[in-house]
Amino acid sequence: MSSLALLHASQLVTLAGPARPRVGKELSELAIIRDAGILIRDGKIERVGPSDEIERILNANCIQDLEAARNVKTVDLGGRVALPGFVDAHTHLVFAGNRLDDFERRARGETYQQIAEAGGGIWSTVEKTRAATEDELFNQAKKRVDWFLKCGTTTIEAKSGYGLTLEDELKILRVIRRLNDETKLEIVPTFLGAHAVPRETSAAKHVDLVINEMLPLVAKQKLAEFCDVFCERGYFDLEQSRKVLTAAKMLRLKLRGHVDQLSNSGGAKLMAELKAATADHLEKTDEQGIAALKSANVQPVLLPGSVYALGSTSYPHARAMIDAGLAVVLATDFNPGSSPTASMPMALSLACTQLKMSPAEAITAATINAAHSLNRGDKIGSLEPGKTANVAVFDCEDYRELAYWFGISQVQGVYVHGQQI
Ligand SMILES: [Zn+2]
């Protein structure tokens, strides 16, 4: 038995509350305890409360059990803010190389079409990823895992989707599994075989390949918990997306979807129809789409980093979604093309400045709501007794500073299963 007591947080942002995703006013209720501490035992949270109370419990435990007393460590957080580790519910972690040339071309004002014609775009990442070995992909992604941890994120969702052949998609999912096993970051795998239409085939043929060959093996080898699809003009239309996701559902995978990013194509309604866990992007979703998501309790995953990095201003209607009672989630969309950031604090900043969410709403969307969207709301996303002791400590006194100071890392310490990393 080993115990750790974190003491004297200026604000312990616990997010304690109902055991379900938070909606409406609940998004603003962070359940903060001032001058607070956490008692952690064997990687799990045992108690949270005012520091003096935690110290009293600690002293009483030590008197009762001298052996246990030798295994207690206390850390003075020195009046800093502590939060549950961020949960990033939408990332594309595993790919080869980068898209620096696209980035520079975009900066010079070239369009997506021009960039694709010059050999850039998603296809360039697919080619590099196909050519990379499993070890190469692992080593490149491992560096990115450190970025997430350094930004205070302790759980991410990660998608395949840059392989687009059976063997290359399985390769990416195996790398995700290995990263989950061999690093401190918890990684929830999603199969995104229908991310783009490969150059060598048609959308219809690729959908057949995904359904008949990829999905059965992904399910059999238990390489993914979720299935995702890119539902958009030029990618996979509504009917093709419905086919892929329905086949995934039959194999007991849960569903997520890239929908309504570039056009309002009815993607949100499709995700509601299929009772998906989440509908992601939603930059173009209208009132009817929002109502459909509400009717099926689908969680919207908002990705302001991709709007920002593409130099667009077409942000999703977060306020309308909150007003409609949706359990909003905030994520980075980490990927080499449209959102090269692993920083949830950056997402918080964008949520407040561009989506007009309050700092408290953004934090709820980046922790407990994100955890529920990954089917882990009972284990992570809040600092409550019985949950995993994933804690991020920030060098500031007020939680609102996380979203306020941008481009500056305030992360002072990260604990995963009660161990500092
Ligand atoms: Zn994405």
Tell me about this structure.
It is a single chain. The chain is an alpha/beta fold. The protein folds into two domains: 3-84 and 383-420, Urease, subunit C, domain 1; 86-373, TIM Barrel. 39% of the residues lie in helices and 22% in strands. The protein is built from 17 helices and 16 strands. Strands 5, 6, 7, 8, 9, 10, 11, 12 and 13 form a nine-stranded parallel β-sheet that branches. Strands 3-2-1-4-14-15-16 form a seven-stranded mixed β-sheet. A hairpin with a 2-residue loop joins strand 2 (32-41) and strand 3. The longest helix is centred in the middle third of the chain and has 18 residues, at 203-220. The protein starts with a strand and ends with a strand. The relative contact order is 0.16. The model has no long low-confidence stretch (mean pLDDT 96). The structure holds zinc ion. Zinc ion binds next to loops.
Our count of domains comes out at: 2
* N-to-C CA distance: 19 Å
> Can you tell me the residue ranges where pLDDT is under 50 for at least 5 consecutive residues?
none
Major β-sheet profile: 9 strands, parallel
Q: What CATH architecture of the largest domain do you see?
A: Alpha-Beta Barrel
Q: Any ligands, ions or cofactors bound here, and which? A: zinc ion
Chain-averaged pLDDT: 96
The counted number of beta strands is 16
Regarding quaternary structure, how should these chains be classified?
single chain
CATH topology of the largest domain: TIM Barrel
* Fourth CATH level, the homologous superfamily of the largest domain: Metal-dependent hydrolases
Instruction: Give the radius of gyration.
Output: 21 Å
Gross morphology: globular
Tally of helical segments: 17
What is the beta-strand fraction? 15-25%
Share of residues in helices: 25-40%
